[in-house]
């Protein structure tokens, strides 16, 4: 089976071919990601109109490149999977409409995919992980802990009550005058900083509810940056280091609640697994903190390679493949409308999606 995946929900124009042999073992045959960073950098963030136009201009070439790199043509493809939401409406329309056109013209099935399901199932592509597992999804627009019990079977256990973690990184970077996208900039600056210089808050730490909050942290950064202005390079490094330290400690405290719940609900599992996914999962300090947390609690940690944490189409192709082989195709995919908002737990499909 070979699936062509298309991803255009934010500022990456991406296409990929993912295949699966008779044993079910997956292979990424190509994974083309064209980032629009240069187009948006001057504005310090993603500008929706610019993003949509850039997707229109780039998508055909990116799809051609993905097919060529995979050594195949449309005739060798069994189905087209495209991100149908959540994300910026302009980009979603471009990707989904293109996918519909290709599917209709080539007579192939179309599989509309929830972008978050792509992030959620990546660990099965990279590590062949079995269900159930606990998912920490940390990205530009989402921060959630999700119980994953099957394809299309997601239960949210915790969410952020304000900013997403990626958003907190991006806003912190912007405040400090660091380049977009903020996550990698903050991580880089933090490497030479002194995390102990500032005592930033650990929002919700110690509370029984399992949720996240990051806006207070961002406010503390703003206050410190204002007090110290004009900022020396060492000030920026110290703020980033203290911010990242606060983030890792907060995450560890919050995630621990859900590890305990997961263990209670699955006493039979010898080595339960936490998966970290989404763009922020590329952060080395966060991976290290989660690794230590899992180690201390008898969990295994699965973190996909950085390239597959950020937005890409291999995860969309893979989610499409998983839907296809679990019989979770939409009845009328050519009429499927893009969904700018689309919670992962509503990507759920009929109950026959159970199992591995
Ligand atoms: P969503 O997946 O929620 O719809 P998105 O697709 O825009 O949002 P991703 O592409 O999955 O988000 O992740 C992008 C986010 O990841 C950005 O906020 C970016 O700053 C953050 N990020 C990327 N690399 C790092 C890093 N090394 N450290 C921290 N954050 C990072
Ligand atoms: Mg992006
Ligand atoms: Fe994403």
Number of strands: 10
Q: Bound compounds, please?
A: adenosine-5'-triphosphate, magnesium ion, fe (iii) ion
Q: Any low-confidence stretches, pLDDT <50, length ≥5? A: 349-356
Overall shape: it is globular
Measure the end-to-end span: 17 Å
The whole-angstrom Rg is: 20 Å
Strand order of the largest sheet: 3-2-1-4-5
* Beta strand %: 15-25%
InterPro entries: ATPase_NBD, Gcp-like_dom, KAE1/TsaD, TsaD
Pfam families: TsaD
Domain Gcp-like: 28-318
Binding site for Fe cation: 115, 119, 311
Secondary structure topology:
Layout: E1 2-7, E2 12-20, E3 26-35, H1 37-41, H2 48-69, E4 79-85, H3 89-106, E5 110-114, H4 115-127, E6 133-138, E7 143-150, E8 153-159, H5 165-175, H6 182-190, H7 215-228, H8 233-265, E9 273-277, H9 284-296, E10 300-302, H10 306-309, H11 314-325
Parallel strand pairs: 1-4, 4-5, 6-9, 9-10
Antiparallel strand pairs: 1-2, 2-3, 6-7, 7-8
Summarize the structure.
Its EC number is 2.3.1.234. With 356 residues, the protein is of the alpha/beta class. The chain has eleven helices and ten strands.
